[in-house]
Batch of 2 targets.
Target 1
Amino acid sequence: MHKFFSNRRLVIIIVCIIISLGLMTLSVEISKKKTTPPLLQQFSNDVTGFAGRIVDGPVNGVHHLFSNTHQLLNTYQENQILKKQVGNVAAVQVRNQALQGENQQLKRQLKIGNTPTDTRSINASVIDRTPSSWQDQIIINKGENDGVVKNMSVLVGSGLAGRVVEVNRSNSKIELITNSNSSSDRFPIQVTTKDGKVLNGIVTGYDRNNNEIEMGNLTSSAKLKSGAKVLTSGLGGITPKGIYVGKIVNVSSDDYGLSSKVSIKPSADMNDIQVVTVIGKNN
Amino acid sequence: MLRDSPLRFIFPIGMFIAFFLDGAITSNLAGILFRSYSMVPYFTVLWLVLSLFFEGNINLHLEIWSAIVGFLFDLFYFRYLGICLFIFPLIIYISKWLYRYLNLNFISAFLIYFIDITVMLVLSFMDYRIFDITDFSYTNFLVNMLGPTLALNLFIFAILYFPIQFLFNRYRVRQKN
């Protein structure tokens, strides 16, 4: 009968475990500290991403076909609702333009330079998603060549969805806001209360059961109402200011009853991402 | 011999398709696969294990293939190296070891695949926990991730077992004539 662990095999297995843990440590450290992965990794990711289009293309095509048909069925209902909003949108847009112009003039006069709301954006489409239950990560088809930089924020539709964590030449990886990982950077966000007070906090987690983002580390104990809009605050200097995150649905005290925990319904649908916008600071 | 068999083309092509199908299916069906539970298809593992079962007298060098594919899996999907690079060959090794004691039929293959997927998920999750890349608890992992993922993968296995067996048998036979 063959033994599962012979002496030689035991040595091989131990060596394998050591190499595995070593490689893990190395890649975790590199991904934390460097802005781009090592050249070999970058090169092979580019080649793999390019080759993957042969399979991804048809699969994505079929998906688009289905979702287009589905959207077509909803069109009439949506049209009714949207018609009501159109009049309002035009008014807001005109006002926005006026304010933007005024803002620019004031900035020029004050010689402020770039503020945290100045951004540049890159549109990209999603080519793959990491097949893993505990790592919510998508791969997009734009990279260093198109101006993507590590730590840029990512929008889906109009809402915040994640952050760029690895940049290759022609594709990059994005960690979604739903990812459960305390060692990754948190997003600084803020809410304005009814009486104009600004509350700062950070995204502290994600509740999979209810599809809600949790906001914690609040700077003040002012009362928050559900329905209030949450934006990124731009503090910390990495995320641009003023990206829409979602609406507050529930305010409760946390597990220890010391500070309040705010649940936010994200405006971006994290499970049907086909196109994203990568947003970075303009400097 | 591998040199005379059409499998020398079919196996790498299947490997290629399976590899990208994992990412493409996960990305396109995310709405169904990720809810309070989450399940993920692993076509690559399926293709590797089924190739092992059906390779017969042809040696496909699956240990080397699994290491290469595992390394690509780490690079392209996980971005942390050293997980699948060793887990995929380990799966092949375990399957081979179990395979010696069982007559190959659908039920025994099903059981071996069950063990393979469990080993793969548990080991890779442990790796993630050790390096603190994920915050999920082991209980959460067992209930919401391991269970549904096993169910999905065994379902896919049951559907694809006979077609792939047919594919392999057909091209092995042709090489003998």
Target 2
Amino acid sequence: MGDVLPGPRRYDGLIRAHAWAAIAMVGYTLLLGLAVALKFHWPDLMSNSPWVTWGRLRYGHTQGVFFGWLGNAFLMFLYYAVPRLAERPLTSVGLGWALFFVWNFLLVIPGWVLVQAGISQPLEWAEFPLEIDAVVVVALMLSAVQFVLPFLRGWLPELYVSGWYILGGLVFTLLAYPVGNLVPEFVPGARGAAYSGLWIHDAVGLYVTPLALAIAYVVIPAATGRPIFSHFLSMIGFWLLFLVYPLNGMHHFLFSAIPMDAQKGAIVASVYLGVDVILVVANLLLSLRGSAGVVAANVPLRFVWVGTVAYVVVSLQGSMQALLPVNRFTHFSDWVIGHSHLAMIGFASFMAIGGMLHVWERLPGVRYSPRAANWAFWLLTVGLGLMVIDLTAAGLIQGQLWESDAPWMDSVRASRVFWLTRSISGVVLLLGFVGVATAMRTGPRGEEVLADDKVTPWQGERGNDDDLAPAPVAALTASWLGKAYVVTAVAGVGFFVLSFLVLAAWPNQVLEAQIAEARPAHLPSPSPAEQRGRQIYAREGCLNCHSQFIRFTDADVRRFGVASQAWESEHDLPQLWGTRRIGPDLARERGRKSPDWHLVHLWNPRYVVPESIMPAYPWLFDRSPQRPTPEALDLVAYLDSLGRDAQLAGLGQGLPSGIDPEEEKRRGMFCDCAIPRTPGPAPLFATAQLSPTERTRFERLGKDVFARQCSGCHGEQGRGDGRAAVALLPTPRDLSGARFSDEALSDAMWRGRPGSSMPPWHDLSVTDLRGLIAFTRTLVSDASDTVTSLDETQRRQADHLYATNCQDCHGPQGGGATATILMPAPTVFRRVRPTTARAERALADGVPGTSMPAWKDKLNDADRRLLAQYVRKFYLPE
Amino acid sequence: MDLDVFDLIVLSITMLMAGFILIWWRCPSLRPWMEAPKYRILAWAPGATRDLDSKTDRTRSKPE
């Protein structure tokens, strides 16, 4: 259709199509992002359908930004820029429409549908499934044919820096995409993570960055009418970028089991990248010297200017994040989310919008409103600033709390206000993009171009170009230097190979040898149920919030256990390490929570953790937490398998890995962290000696903590009738049915109650624990439930009944058996005095889910009543 | 000599940078060739020396 138009204008139709596709898709992508943000405040929002669950929306959001928005915006710009840069027509308009169809209707839209349907790939920046990966490779090949061949056909003696970036970006991505997306499907765990790390950074650094910089280098001279400051500097920037950026990838996995040499390489490359970006940005900003008025008046140029500033800020931030002391603190936190939004909105999107509007206002026959564009600029700038500052601050606070021993929920609670601000900033950003669309739909129409306009189309039809260049160039262009970029293109491929070897293939080889040596023999393979559960975990995007990667840092080891070893994830295909923690790490989840707890938590996390922001997964159940589907059971089986190998290998007990410590250190598997703290015998959080005033204060505090942490299972009145109780076995204790000693409560809260769903709460502060104990003791109302004295006959009979039927489990004099293997452990009556009614009920009916049987068929009513009175006498008051 | 990845990266970047600077310093005749492409793109800008595609490059912004 466009072929009838002369010169570069034949691509106007494609430019318009990609521009509107970009606008439509960024709208949808931002709605996905906004839904993701709002679910932080209302986790039950749209929670009944798996199609719109948090994890799947998050997958769609990132891929939508990458392919739907930026992909289309860049393609739009390429149709404008490449014919002019190469001074040759593109390969074919027909190919352009084929690429448009493939990109949007075979890649982005099906990718979104598949991800929402639960068919995805759990890798950062690679969330679309393998089927879509194949389409991406085809689309990238079509892009290369369309946009690279004109340069090769042209053999230009002078290739402008934007052309270099376009060539580099398209060719490098074509090489890097399959490596980052396919290899981790075949190489498991830590070894696969090395390849993933490569792509995470290549996606941003070698697709988004080159094309965004190509825009900047076009818009700035075109808008100001002046050449850039130095083409030489721009070329240094280009080559450093392509040498250094691919080597950055591993900095997403610092403090990991990946060889320290590779990590150090990524750190130094990150620092060099910061230096390179200073060079590039200095050149761009120097190109704008004396053009402040133009920047102020020309909205597309202003977008590019802000994008340039954002580029240097985000890059220096990235370099800083790669330094170990900063990474230790900020990684996994919202700081990184702020960083990625600064990169993808502040840098890439501002550049893309600048490029789009720059092209749009030059496009004949379309409407363009500078006024609306100006509004869009300010909305987007305000939204960006708000979001980035907010998330950066949130990340610092989260990092601080994670470094401390504060309970995990403290960081969630502290983040709420920042997440609210993030949602508001998201709305502002959405309005900004509406402004961009408005700018492209309103305002005066551009002048129509008639088909018979005289336009100078391509080189060869134009005559001699050499009059443009300074004198010595004419001689040089005829020499081999004229084709130097072909030689350097080979060097570019060499850079890719270098990064592949240094950051992926070599660590893979080292890890393979380490794993072969360190992995204990005879570890069980994951069961089929666990494997299916793993697929569900990946499908629902659990890794977006839960890492499975305990770093070699003090804070991680203290909180989650011994650092993750490379051999532990050898069954992980692809790896599920994750790059963000909204919830706690799950690498050592086994045994921490009961399967019942996990099931209720999946049905509705607020049932067991009242302040949780985790989404519910009701579609894994048949309308009730008591009726889990096989998928829910599989997922719980998988969760309960996490860390099993480490337990079997004795890692939790501080047993050596089997490698000589010096050898470990030499290989970079060093750890400067403390031995993991395991909750041993509980300290006594005594409340008996509190003064009445203190007691009241602690009880008030405890009531709040109880409402936040305990009411989901035990109910608000502590009667064991919380929302989760129906699905837990044994049912949560009725705290109003017994008087508990400080010692009993201290022990239960410190270690949990193994064999039940009561988890340990040793991460709560001492004050909170003492408050909880003080409050719990108020729940029982046994003032009128006096201990009946027994006469000699009754006592003898009770002694006999107890010794015959109860003592083996409950111990002599209710002191607890010394070597019981029963879980939950039988009640120690010296520490727990049930009410008479409660004791009689337990004796008659037993306690479901425990080893306490029903005695109503073996003991008559009188004997049971006698025993109920008898066991109450054992209690030792403080 | 036992080179690790750290050394390799520092070395290669240093050599690349040194190469660029050396060429700039030792081959002044190449400088115009290196800078020439930045003038070529001005052909697109309004009021530039050559009008590659006058209609398509007409802007509706009003600078200054």
